[in-house]
Amino acid sequence: MIKLLADKNSVSVIGLNKPIKSEINVPGDKSISHRAVMLGSIANGNSTIINLSVSRDNLATVTAFRKLGIRIETLEENKIKIHGNGLYGLKEPQNIINTYNSGTLTRLISGILAGNDFFSVLSGDKYLNSRPMARIIDPLALMGAKIFGRKNNYPPLSIIGSKLKPIYYDMPIPSAQVKSCLIFAGLYADGNTVIYEKNKTRDHTERFLSLQDYPFTEEGTADGGNIINVKGGGELKPFNIEIPGDFSSAAFFIALGLLLKDSEITIKNVLLNDRRVGLINILKRMNANIAIIDYREDFEKVGTIKASYSRLSAINITEEDVPDMIDEFPIFAVIASFAEGITTVHGAKELRVKETDRIKAIVTNLNKFGIKSKEYDDGFEIEGNPNYSEQLDKLNKSDKFEEFDKLNKSAEKKDNGSFDIKSYGDHRIAMSMIILALLLKNKETAVNDVRCINTSFPGFFDILKKIIL
Q: 3-state class of 239 per DSSP?
C-alpha cells in the first residue's frame, strides 16, 4: 500500500506480502525526448514526435524552445509537431529560460545557445543550480563561447552567442551530456569539431544526426575509445519518430520483478540501446532471470523485458561498467541489497554531482534501513542479504527490536518502528527507496520529498497502484 501523507510531499509505504504478475508500459525515453525537441527545433522543416516523455524535465525543454521562437504544437498529451526553423532560426528569449531540475537540458541547450547570436540566461531549481557546470563551460570557452556562471561554475548561466571555432577535445570523464553539448556547438563551428571519449557513451545524439542526414563521422580507436567528427554549418532534416519506453523508468519495475518472491513483471516496448542496458548485462552476471523478447531495431533498438524472481549473487562494478548504467545506480543499490555477498562499485565518482550526491544518499538511506553499506570516494559497498525482508518481518511479529538492532546498529526507526527516509530532492533516489520499501514485507516506511519524481516519471505512482492492487 502507498498513500500520500498530510503534506502531500511524502508517502507512506507498506511492504508487499504477495507476489506481482503484471505487464506494463513505461513513458517515452527522457534522453531521446530532450534531443528530439532540440534537434527538431533547429531542423529545416516540420517534425512529429510520438510518445514524448511528459516529465517536468522534458516539458521544460519544450517550453525553452517555445521561448526561443519555435512553434511547437501539442497534438495529443505525448504527441507534438515541431515547426523547425533551421540552425539559425532561433530568437533571443525575452526572459530567463527555466531548466528546473534538468541537467540534461542545461548542458545540451548550452551548446546550441553558444552558437546563436543573442543573449540568454539558464537557471533551474536549487538542486540544479548547485550542480557544477565546468565540464561544459571549459570546452565551450575553448571554442570561443562567452558563457558565464555563478562562481564561474554554477547556474544561473549567462550565454552571449558568438561565432564558434572547431576544436579537438579529449573528454577527461566519459559523459553523453558533455559530448552532446559539444556536438551541438560543433554544428555552429566554422570547420570540423573532433571529440574523443576513452569509453563510448550513449549515442542518441549521433543516431539523430544519422536520421537527419547530417555530415559527421564516428569511429573506434585502437585503445577502445571513440572519435566523433562533426562538420559545422550543415543542414538538419526533419523527422517523424515514435520514442521507445524509457529504460531508466523500466529499471524500477525490473528490480521489483527480480526481488519480490514469486513475481514476474513484463515491460513492453523499452529502449534497448547498447549504451543504456548496462544494468541488464550486470544483472545477468548476477544470475538474474531476465529475458528480452519481441526485439527489433529501427531508429533505436527496442524490445520487451521480462523480469522474474531471482536469487542473485553479489558483483564487483568497475569503471568500465559505469557509463552504460550511470542513471541506474540508485536502483542497482537496492538490487545489490538483496544479492548474496558483498557488492562493490568503483569508478562512479560522477554520481557525486548528479541531482544530489547519489553515493552519499544511497549509503545513508540503506544504513537507515539496516542494510550494511559504506561509501568510497568513487562508489560504495553493500553487504547484501537475500533473506532480509523475511528476517525483518519475523522480528516485527515478535516485537524483538533489540534483535533487529543487532542485525544492524546503523538502522534508524521512528517510535512506531517504521523507517523515515529522505530523497534529497533526487527523483531516482525517491523512486528507488519506494521500491525498497515495497520489498520489506509488512514494514512501514515514510519516504519524504517525493514531488521530485515528477521531474522524470510523473506516472510512477499510477503504474505502482495498477500492479500492486
A: coil
Q: How many CA atoms lie within 13 A of 201 on its CB side?
A: 22
CB-CB neighbours of 308 under 10 Å: 16
On whether the CB atoms of residues 291 and 258 are closer than 8 A, the answer is no
- Does the CA dihedral 246-247-252-256 come out positive or negative? positive
Number of structural domains (the chain) is 2
User: pLDDT tens digit string along 440-466?
Assistant: 999 999 999 999 998 889 999 999 999
The CATH number that applies at residue 223 is: 3.65.10.10
Q: Is 213 one of the annotated active-site residues of the chain?
A: no
pLDDT for position 45: 97
Stretch 3-26: mean pLDDT: 87
Q: Which of 188, 216, 242 is the last residue of a domain?
A: 242
pLDDT given at position 276: 93
Residues 6+ apart with CB under 8 A from 363: 373, 374, 375, 380
CA neighbor of 93 nearest in space, from 68, 117, 116: 68
Q: Is 107 found in the same domain as 55?
A: yes
Mean residue pLDDT of the chain comes to 93
Q: What type of residue sits at position 449? A: D
Residue of 324, 327, 426, 449 with catalytic role: 327
Domain that holds residue 298: 2-27+244-468
Distances (CA, A) of 467 to 19, 271, 331: 10, 21, 19
Instruction: Please state the pTM of the whole predicted model.
Output: 0.89
Residues 89 and 11 in one domain: no
CA dihedral over 320, 108, 254, 240, signed as positive or negative: negative
Of 415, 428, 331, 418, the residue nearest 368 (C-alpha):
418
* pLDDT given at position 1: 67
Cα–Cα distance measured from residue 432 to residue 430, given in angstroms and rounded to the nearest whole number:
6
Please indicate, yes or no, whether residues 291 and 230 belong to a single structural domain of this protein. Answer: no
Burial class (CB in 10 A: 0-12, 13-18, 19+), 342: middle
Same domain, 330 and 210: no
Same domain, 304 and 439: yes
At residue 404, the pLDDT reads 53
Q: Based on the domain organization, do 221 and 289 belong to the same domain? A: no
The amino acid at 3: K
Q: Which three cell numbers stand for residue 310?
A: 531471482
